[in-house]
Structures are given as structure tokens and as C-alpha cells.
Sequence to fold (546 residues):
Amino acid sequence: MVGDPLVTHSGEQDYNVLNMPGYRQPQHASECIYYTLWIATNYVANSYPDKSVRDATNPPKLDLIKQYIDTGDIGWEKPRQDPLTELAREISSVKLNLQCRYGGHPQDLDEFVQDGLENLLPTIIWIDKVLLKQGDRGTGPLHAVVVSGVGDSHITIEDPLVEGTTTFEIDNLEEAWDPEYNTAIEVSLSNTFEPTRREEL
Amino acid sequence: MSTKEDTAVDEEEARRVAMDVVRFNLGTFLRLDTGEFDKEELEYTFPIILRSPKLILDADNENAVDLRFLDPLEVGDVIVDAKTKDVDHPTIRQVKKELESYEEELNQAIQKALVRASGSNLSHLPFPENQYAPLQDILSEVILNSKIEVDELEMMDSYEDGEKYMKYIDSLVELDLLKRGDESFRSGDVLNTIQEKDKFEGHELETHQDELNAALGRYFEANVGEFEMIKRTLGPYLAIAGFYYRRALELDELPVIKEDELRDGIKFEYSGRERRQKLFKMSRYLVQLEDVGVLTPVYQGGERYWAGDENTFKRLKATADQLGPVTELFSPALTEQQTLGGMSD
Fold:
């Protein structure tokens, strides 16, 4: 539904989640960055409550995202801010800020994504799926997912490899959140727009 | 003697510097293993490791049904100078080259297993002139005349200026296809069994050519060590069939694959002009693989697809313990892995 940013959690949790468009990543594991950027920015284009934001957003096609970001057998190659800034310029209404800090951010994962969610905006994070699924530390390739909701004990993501949303205990996902750098892309609105606060709905 | 205490850079700092180059100069799939300190050179070495994520696709090649991770592979080292903090690391191109070699190793392991599993089928393929002619000469002679003289073989080798004939003898004796006598070789027990029966390993034995094929199949299956030679003969067939059966192993079932997709088997294996030549001959290879029962055409919605052979697949899986790096690709039926669906809301 256009302009309807929140939906109730499809499982047992009592918090709402952002109304993300699903887009399954069909072929190459390294393309998660394309699909997460597509999901996050197409959500802004179609579901953000402020019509002026929706109207100003040029939802990118995968091909456009691919023009700016190189991926391959070693994942996102040379990740840095510049291509995200250029891509955000094409999209027009959003800023895409690469956040990473060796040893991790001072905030916990739920606090980190909360700022965006208060403004009805998602955050893309990288997780170690080997650690998450099998408990093996220090070896897993990083995989990008979009955080769409958080509650007191659980957190919900849109994983382009999985149909629908996936919910974890916050501690479990936090442990697998890029153990070296806590890498994330914060999605915010460009300076021309005032974000809509969740409590305003 | 120098120690870590004498250096300006401690291990934690060296690791941070090494990780920075891995993450921001290379890619997000790479991680660092435990580092080692070289007291002589005063430098830290951190192996770069990659657990390649492999999306297992459904039979239509449209949706991922599982995500697996290959065992950690070392794709290079980051070296940090413990005095100056200078960093030496491989380029993206060098890391990718390492990966390509590993991927080739995987495909070769599957092709070897396929030869072991289906040598008796593959031996029915028409071989290029002279490729296995000496082997066929020996076996044909023994099949028709029950023996071959040692002198004759040695004479032939002297004409050919090399061990074209005698080099096969030890293997044939070991496989019990030949029995060594003082002056001649006679048919061994296995060859005798092949000649006595109407059927051998599922194949009808009506003609001498059938018997020769059965004996050759036995030879292929047992001589995977000679893989380079087998590959020169069977290369494109193995590239296509290997591509198909790799997918079958990943899915743990015989998928129905679009003909066009099988062309990727050739594309992975060959490049440039050779690739174009092999792609042009693709239809002939498929017709011949169908003829020997390794692949079968299936028609759906007016399009041609290909499916595999149950017996070949069973035998291929039975050699799982010899497949080395391939075992990580196996479906959950063979290795315990979680599925993606298990986590979703």
C-alpha cells in the first residue's frame, strides 16, 4: 500500500516492522548489497509516509546500483563511501552513509538501528552467517541484510536470501554483526526533507 | 634475540592494520586467520581466508534453496612490518586467481569421480583416431585370439620409438584384464568374465565391440590417475556431464536442466577459439552423451532439457569420500546443513 510504512509483525512479536518490498536474490551470494540497497530505497519510494519524499525519490533499478558498486567472488570489492554518495545523488531523496569502526560501534545493535527506525527508515547491516548459523567464529563471509524492526528482545530483518522477514533474539544477531567493524549503511533523508517520526503516525 | 616486545607494533595493532587492507582494499567475504610473528624478519603474517558462499539453486535455476559455505581456503597473506607498520598484501586479481584455481580443482575432482562412476558408459563414446588405439589393439587381439605375444608388443614399441604398447601392460594385468605368461599375455579373469556374459555392468554384450568397450570402461574407471590423458579424449563430454552432475550433487537429486545452461560447462572449461569450437559441437556431444546413457533429453513446454542417469548418480555418490573438496557442496542428505527456510518468520 502506497504511503503505509508500518505493518504488524507477522510472527509472535508485538512491534511493527517497516513495510519492505521483498526482492529475492536469486543467483550470486555477493549480490546481497544490490538487493538490500534496492529493498531499502524502494521502501522509501513506495511506502514512506511523506508524499513529498516519495515523489522526490527515484527508485533505483538493480542495474543502476550495479553501475556504482563492484561485487564478485570476494564480496563487495573495496567498500567505501564514494559510490554510495553517487548512488544517493541519483536517488535524490536519501543519504546512504557507510558506518564502520574497527572493534565495533559504542552502541548496541538495537540502539544503533533505533535512530533510523524512529524516523521510519531502515538500516543495512552486514552479518557473519557462518557464525549465525553454525557458531563458527572468524571465518564467515559477510552478508548484507536490512533491519526493518526492533523490539525489547527481538529484531527483524529482511534477508534477500529468504522469503519474508526473519526474526532473531537481539543478542544473537548482534554477535554476528560484522565482528570486526560492525559495518552498516544508515539510510537517512537528504537535508531538504524533515523525517516523519514514528510517533507522528 | 628479537622479541615482540622489541617491536613498535604489537600483534593487536598489526591485526587491525592487516584487517583494514583486507576489508577496504579487497572485499567483504575475506577474513583473517590467526597471525604468526617472525622473530628474524620482525614481521607478522596473517593468512587471508575465504569460506566461499555457494547458493544452491532449485532445478529451474531461479531460486536459492540453500546457502552453503565451502571449507576455509587460504587465498594469500597480509604481512605487516613490526617496526614500520608497512603492509604487503595480494591484489584483488591475485586473490581471484587463487579462487579460480580452487574452482578448477573442484570441477576436476567431480570429473574424475564421474570417470570412476561411469567409465563403462563413457568408453562407448567414439574416440579420436589413435588416442587409445594401442590399448584397443592389445585388448582386441586378446578378445579375438585369446593371447598376444610379448615379442610382438616389444617389436611394435621399437617401430613406434617409445613405450606405446608396453606402458599399458602393468595396468591391464593389475586389473585382471590380462594374465602374464612367459612369452605371451592371455586374457585375465575379468576379461574372461566379460566374454562369458551377455551383460556386464548393465551393458549388453552382443558383439566384440561391446566386449572391447566393457574392458576399456574397466580401464578408465581404474586409471583416473591418468586423468590428463583421459581428459584429452573425453574433455568436452566431461565438461558437460561434470557441470550437470555437480548440480545433481548439490541438490541431491537429478535435476532437469535447460540445454542452454549446459553450455556453461563448456564455458567454464574452455576459452577463446577452443571455446567457440566446442560450443559449435555442443549438439554432437549431447547426442553422444545421450547415446551412452549419461544424459537423457526431456521435452517440456516445447523446450529441450536434459536429465541424468540414476545409476551414474548412485555410483558418483558412492565415491563421495574420494571427492575431496567436492564434499562440501553436497546436499544436506550427505552433510548436515541448515536450510534457509528454517530461520524465517
Q: What stands out?
A: The CA atoms of residues 52 and 108 of chain A lie 33 Å apart. The domain at 6-200 of chain A is CATH 3.90.70.10 (Cathepsin B; Chain A). Chain A has a mean pLDDT of 93. The longest helix of chain A spans residues 32-47.
